[in-house]
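### Sample
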Amino acid sequence: MAASSSSAHLTECVYNVPMPQDMNSHTVGLDINGALARNLKHFAESKLFTLGPMPVQAFLDEFLPDSNLDGRGGMLSSDGAFSSVPKRGQSSADICKPLIAALNQSTSRKSRCPGFVFEDVASRSVQPRRLGHMKPHICCFANDFVDEALGPDKASRAELGFAELFLEIQPDPTCDFYNDPAPGANAETRASHQIGQDYDPEDDVPQVLESIKALGQHIAYVQEVFCRQFRIHFFTVSLAGSRARLFRWDRSGCIVSESFDIREHPELLCEFLWRFSQTSVITRGHDTTVKYASAEHEDIFCKLIDEETRLQIGLTGEELRRAVAQHYEPGKVMIVQVPMEGATLGHRQFLFSRPIMSAASLAGRGTRGYWAVDLSRRMVVFMKDTWRPRSLDELEGDTLRHLHDADVGNVPFLVAHGDVISATSRTEYQTTKTEEYASLPWVCRVGDKAAHISRRRHYRLILGPVGYDLRYFQGADELLHATYDAFIAMLDALRKDSRLHRDISAGNVILVRERGSEPDSRRRGYLIDWESSSHVDDAGLALKPGRAGTWEFMSIKMLSDVTGNERQTIEDDMESLLYVVLYCALLWLPHNLSDQEVSETYTRFFEFSTRHSGVAVGGDGKASNAYSRRYTRDIAFDCPAVKVWLDTIMDYCSPREGAEKGKWTPDHVDAFWSDFLNTQALDRRGRVAHHTSTSSSASTADSITHLSTSVHAHDPTPARGRSPFHALPSPVTDTRRPAVAGAATKRTTRASTAVESAPRPKRTRTTVTQARRRERPDPSPLRRSQRIQDQQSRKNSEESRPATRSSGRKANAPASGTRAGQSSRGARGRGRGRGRGRGAAPRK
């Protein structure tokens, strides 16, 4: 039967792979306190990468083509398949229970989805109603792996590591995520129709908020699947009452189908499940280029990772074991092949296990970084697994080769790199597909702006050496020597290859202890992550316009750019390096500021942002400090030389009245810095951890988990910008994750919640644009008022229906022909008051 064939193919897949952990064995990126902010960020981002509503039959034919129309002997009839599923329920359980029974229905010869089983996963949680602990309502597992997926530990999230697809359920049709246009709408109507939910904090309509939170949670599950599996794409199903939508997700975005009623059209869901069960694992979305390593290879990997960790950070005993666990999980070592330089040089095999960083957003590069082992050379290297934009002029591996050919110092060396070839063809590559449908006539707007979808190709890059993030520095001596090493790399790249880095950040400078050096020797700084770099013209301006970098460390000029046309210079990169040193000194060197003062300085100086004409702008704190030294003038470090360095470099960068001008040049800075290191006494130790409160995503950022998407000219938004709900900050801890050479380990660009008392520097562009913005009338309250009236009208209509005594529920939905999407903005009366304190759609 097809089921056995399907089961055999599943052995090609790698399931339930490790996720990044900190030194305390906590999974990075899943902290409970940040769950609401993450989900709301997912919702906001989804407006820019979602396409729909795609006709259901077209969805099936495009993504699950039926190549065996005659081989349907094992398929159950769809007649009345879901008649036991109510049109609406008081809770999700009212839908789940009969739906699971229908999905798993089978006879001795026929079944709904051969080779797979559907299980209630939502109840398998230690706190099934708490955000961050919640799991999808229903998961589909391969028969061979269901026991492993449903182990005894409810705290485990292995279900998402084995899920072939999942179904999320809201109890009522009015809880639909989207609002389809009227049947038969022409292309012009569709082009202007908005299917996504609108949200404004002033609305405060619980039913709308509930649906928005539920969509954010749905995307969070998908993102976690991509972290726990090796995926090219993934399918999900959402139900609002008995109305369903099909989803296909990849690293470019999402395609969502039209809504359909599984009671009235059971054949559509049945067809989806049948085709899903009969197709290959590749069509179901698995990346089969990753294989499990042998026991012999795992032993090699474990031994070499242990040795490298001991060399880099000099730990022993239990501390060493915990450090090694950041790179290795027993029984979870994988192997991949990566092409060597030149097509004729073949491939080399690399072993890897637990990533040190993983992307926090679904759409984008999806970067994962690993300490890996070069099997042929028996050496530890870094592997960067990412989905690069197809539009790149130059691969990062080629950039590194050019830098080395030009003898640029303090940059990683290239081992191997290349696009990932499809497992089914030697001439095709693993690419995203979402972008191929962006211009089709069925596409409607999801948000206020048109979707921005990039075509991406899977790419792997192998680099050396490995090391630890700059935020692991031991004292002022290591901090200022390592950043000087990075400064030399910047100057070398400019002078020898006419290239700017454009993403100078604390995550992109790593500390490396060279082999043969003393255990307590000073580590060398390497400047990594050159994927956003750009050549310059004769005037020293980057050929690529717009922002590219990490929000906290961008120069004032780039943060105030609203046009996307500004071009960076070496002075902008130097300014970013100044902020890197200040950032590290503020958070991890002993000084006289209280934790509260550190928190306020961090938020206002590094994170502040606002919006002008829909574009994020910032730099107010930096501009204020440049003008008056507002944030740095009163800092007294235990190591006085640190303040000498900061004051001098800031005077070079932004000389105050009466100070000597013209010193903000590479030569002047180099002369001062090199002399400073030769003459000043710097503490070798003395690292401290200031317990500060920064943004809600700080713990994730400090663990080097990021969006992996640079801020480009046409998308200049801080990636961790304020959510629609203005999530509150959470503390920075000292569980800093290591970063390694070649990793895209920058902290994601982000913006903090605007602080009312944040300084407004004199005569800055940001101040002027804010004033102009306040002068213009805002038409949104009028649109908002009409939307609230529509929502209230629909709520009243829903609540006026008579209840059905026998069931205890309200009467069924309107007669067929009324799309659930048409009332998706209506009041979700049955959700009112549920889920209090959880910040997500109710788990019922």
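The chain has a mean pLDDT of 82. This sample (Fungal-type protein kinase domain-containing protein) is used throughout the tutorial notebook.
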